[in-house]
């Protein structure tokens, strides 16, 4: 079965950085477009970023463009999100998502002083 396991979240001060990781199994990771989505407290899911199966194509939500970088390692079936210059409004549970819409359990990111 599909499994996506996120990690790397935590508490960070505004302006800080975090790198999220997601390890995938149960599907052909190297054939799948992958995304990061997030859910802030009391709000719906928000798409953050996506990367093509080979890693050459990336897209970002305007709210994170220039601050976040998505990348992947197909040999390790892993997806990453490098987050710099974090803002309080980035506080959310972050999920990785495969092309079929499956998501992991998420990892909490809290940006606060």
Which features does this protein show?
113 residues, mainly beta, 6-stranded mixed β-sheet, 4-stranded antiparallel β-sheet, 49% strand, globular
Strand order of the largest sheet: 2-10-9-4-5-6
Largest sheet: 6 strands, mixed
**Average pLDDT number:** 97
Helical segment count: 0
Could you estimate the helical fraction of the residues in percent? under 10%
Please compute the radius of gyration using only Cα atoms.
Answer: 13 Å
Tally the beta strands.
10
> In whole angstroms, how far apart are the ends?
40 Å
Q: Strand-and-helix sequence, N→C?
A: EEEEEEEEEE
Please report which band the strand proportion falls in: under 5%, 5-15%, 15-25%, 25-35%, 35-45% or over 45%: over 45%
**Spatial shape:** globular
Description:
The protein is an all-beta fold and 113 residues long. Helix content is 0%, strand content 49%. The chain contains no helices and ten strands. It has strands spanning 3-7, 10-12, 18-25, 34-39, 45-51, 58-60, 68-73, 78-83, 92-97, 107-111.
Task: Give the secondary structure arrangement, pairings included.
Blueprint lengths: L2 E5 L2 E3 L5 E8 L8 E6 L5 E7 L6 E3 L7 E6 L4 E6 L8 E6 L9 E5 L2
Parallel strand pairs: 2-10
Antiparallel strand pairs: 1-3, 3-8, 4-5, 4-9, 5-6, 7-8, 9-10
State the gist of this model:
The chain has 113 residues and is mostly beta strands. Helices cover 0% and strands 49% of the residues.
């Amino acid at each position: 079965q599909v499994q996506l396991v996120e990690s790397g979240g935590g508490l960070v001060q505004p302006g800080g950085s975090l790198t999220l990781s997601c390890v995938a199994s149960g599907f052909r990771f190297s054939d799948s477009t992958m995304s990061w989505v997030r859910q802030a407290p009391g709000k719906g899911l928000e798409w953050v970023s996506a990367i093509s199966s080979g890693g050459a194509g990336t897209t970002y939500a305007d709210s994170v463009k220039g601050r976040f970088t998505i990348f992947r390692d197909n040999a390790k079936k892993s997806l990453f999100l490098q987050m710099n210059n974090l803002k309080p409004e980035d506080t959310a549970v972050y999920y990785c998502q495969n092309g079929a819409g499956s998501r992991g359990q998420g990892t909490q990111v809290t940006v606060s002083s």
